[in-house]
Amino acid sequence: MKEKPTIAPPTGRLGVLLPGLGAVATTYIAGLLLARRQQGKLFGSVAEQAHIRLGPRAAKRNPKIRDILPLANIDDVVFGGWDIFPDNAFEAARKAGVLSAEHLKEIESELSAINPMTGAFDRDFVKKLDGPHVKAGARNQMAKALFDDIERFKAEHRCDRLVMVWCGSTEVHHQAEDVHQSLTAFEDSLDSDDRRISPSMLYAYAALKLGIPYANGAPHLNNEIPALRELADATKTPMMGKDFKTGQTLIKTILAPGLKARMLGVHGWFSTNILGNRDGEVLDDPGSFRSKEVTKSSVLDTIFQSDVYPELYGDIYHKIRINYYPPRGDEKEAWDNIDLFGWLGYPMQLKVNFLCRDSILAAPVVHDLVLFLDLAKRAGLSGVQEWLGFYFKSPLTIDQLPPEHDLFIQQLKLKNTLRELAGEVPITHLEDR
């Protein structure tokens, strides 16, 4: 057994700060509140539900992850957030339409007590939304207001630790420029109200500046920029992103590794979605859709390794569509058609129709990131946490290395990191020969 790393205990309250108090955030909050009352199970959460093998198979050691690592208790979590709409968490959850009226009624008083702080917002970055509950002023003034919000929340709720997870809408696609290349340039640009600094970057900046672990659940440019990487290293703060891996892309990263493992070729992969929640409305704008398209498209590239297997995957045609369809609400439907080929090049087809609930899939991802980023902070880890790539469509990497998208490789890295944090030996599956 390895020497167990020193991890500070999860004493006191953990404050969870959520920019974007919409469908995902309120579904997550409601789930924890119901679980506290023994009125719901946190299915989908690896941190809460998964067991982890320790040592060789013959040892038959297979405890729950929560039983071997000092994770925060859900009873110690308190919630806060920001939104450009003034609805409290109960009203926001009711409008989102994810959870039943019966479930929401059980926790109405607790949800109603969670009122969003005014959001940092610039409509140039989210063209389909325009809320009244926004911060005024230039970029540096909005950043200062976020610092004040965080410090006030921490004091009012007597929090010992904080974690922030972006659950807001997808911003328009844009590339990193000179203002994003260093912390000095970034902070100078805040003072000059440079509009190339997005609102979401202000949240990431505030969190990392204060040493608060941060994750970006959306696909737009955010904490991967050099300036914020530099800040995370300087403040010794763990962070990760980007874009929660939930519906269609989750299925892709399960299926594609299987096809490649059996050396089955793919001519084309067509993916389309319909959904009607706020995310669907935002993605109806071409600029925001482009941010999503980039992260959804990238997963097949590294899994299939077309440069290594040109005959199998060199000419793959990958098409992605997202269609806003209001009647569907949060219940997304995803269709995939895969044209593949096998022995002697004979063609086959695989078709998938996934009727999923977007926020039901995203809520446990938020929960795991909250628990694992808090654990990372208490363990003294900092910067990009590649072992959490399991949860993202476009995982951040160290030194700009290509990300790993194979879900099963990501799972192995996640669990081996947890084993090391528990003072256990990583599993290679060679120990049972």
Counting DSSP E segments of at least 2 residues, the number of strands comes to: 11
CATH class of the largest domain: Alpha Beta
CATH superfamily of the largest domain: NAD(P)-binding Rossmann-like Domain
Distance between the termini: 19 Å
| Number of DSSP helical runs | 16
What's the architecture of the largest domain, going by CATH? 3-Layer(aba) Sandwich
Strand order of the largest sheet: 3-2-1-4-5-6-11
Q: Any idea how many domains? A: 2
Which fold does the CATH topology of the largest domain refer to?
A: Rossmann fold
| N-to-C order of helices and strands | EHHHEHHHEHEHHEHEHEHHHEEEHEH
Beta fraction of the residues?
15-25%
Given the C-alpha coordinates, what overall shape results?
Answer: globular
State the helicity in percent bands: 25-40%
Structural class: alpha/beta
Query: Mean pLDDT score, rounded?
Result: 95
The largest sheet is: 7 strands, parallel
Rg from alpha-carbon coordinates: 21 Å
Which runs of at least 5 residues are low in confidence (pLDDT < 50)?
A: none
Describe this structure in words.
The protein is of the alpha/beta class and 433 residues long. The chain has two domains: 13-244 and 360-421, Rossmann fold; 248-356, Dihydrodipicolinate Reductase, domain 2 (2-Layer Sandwich). It is 39% helix and 17% strand. The chain contains 16 helices and eleven strands. It has helices at residues 23-36, 46-49, 65-68, 89-96, 101-106, 108-112, 139-156, 183-191, 199-209, 226-234, 248-261, 278-283, 286-304, 310-313, 358-378, 407-421, and strands at residues 13-19, 77-83, 117-118, 159-166, 214-216, 238-241, 265-275, 317-324, 331-341, 347-357, 383-384. The strands form two sheets. A seven-stranded parallel β-sheet has the order 3-2-1-4-5-6-11, sandwiched between helices. A four-stranded mixed β-sheet has the order 8-7-9-10. Strand 5 (214-216), helix 10 and strand 6 form a beta-alpha-beta unit. Helix 1 (23-36) crosses helix 4 and helix 7 packs across helix 9. The model has no long low-confidence stretch (mean pLDDT 95).
